[in-house]
Amino acid sequence: MSASSHARRRGRVTFPAPPGAAAITVTVFALAGCVGAGVAAQAFATAPAPIKATTYTLPPPAPDLVNPTGHSLRGEDVYGAGAFGASRGGGARRHRGADYIAEPGEVVRAPIAGVVQRIGFAYRGDERYRYVELTSEDQTRDVRVLYVGPLVELGAVVRAGEPIGRAQDLSRRYPRGITNHVHVEMRENGALADPADVLPAASDQHGEIDA
Questions:
Q1: Phi and psi of 61, rounded to 5°?
Q2: What is the pLDDT of residues 103-161, one digit of tens each?
Q3: Which of 20, 131, 172, 211 has an alpha carbon within 20 to 30 A of 161's alpha carbon?
Q4: Among candidates 105, 136, 152, which has minimal Cα distance to 198?
Q5: If you write DSSP's letter for every residue of 58-116 in order, what string do you get?
């Protein structure tokens, strides 16, 4: 029995492939491949450019303590020395803070992070000179910075190193040649402390903060 007769007996008719059918099939697959490649190429050409990785340097963390002027302590002049505990009034009293050299008009920075608790006058009856007082968040440390024209408001929250005022000119009150400075008084848990034992010494810390 021939193959065609066998197929008819099973209810299926198989027609022989016409000449050239294999070539047509190959051509169709080739065309499909070309079209697919073209679509892929077009999609690749119109795809958004990949984002290039860039380097990013995180800023340094905010300091906890800052020298208010970035300068050293005031030395000896005709009005005394600027160190904590220095003699005042011919030995009748002691200096209750530390004096940091400051040029009139330069920025004075918060020595600690905290809330602006008070803004007042450095001397009773003399409204030319002001102070700014900060209290730390945990209320364990208070710092009063005198002889500054305030740049902050009462109740403001500041970080250590942020500007709180500008240094004032002390020559009007002390005309015999005082070294211009800001006076820093510090209390820790209510007790007077030497700011120079806590705050950084003279350095370029202010430049690092501004960078």
A1: -65, 150
A2: 999 999 999 999 999 999 999 999 999 999 999 999 999 999 999 999 999 999 999 99
A3: 172
A4: 136
A5: PPPPPPSB--SSSS-B---BTTB--STT-EETTTTEE--SEEEE--TT-EEE-SB-EEE
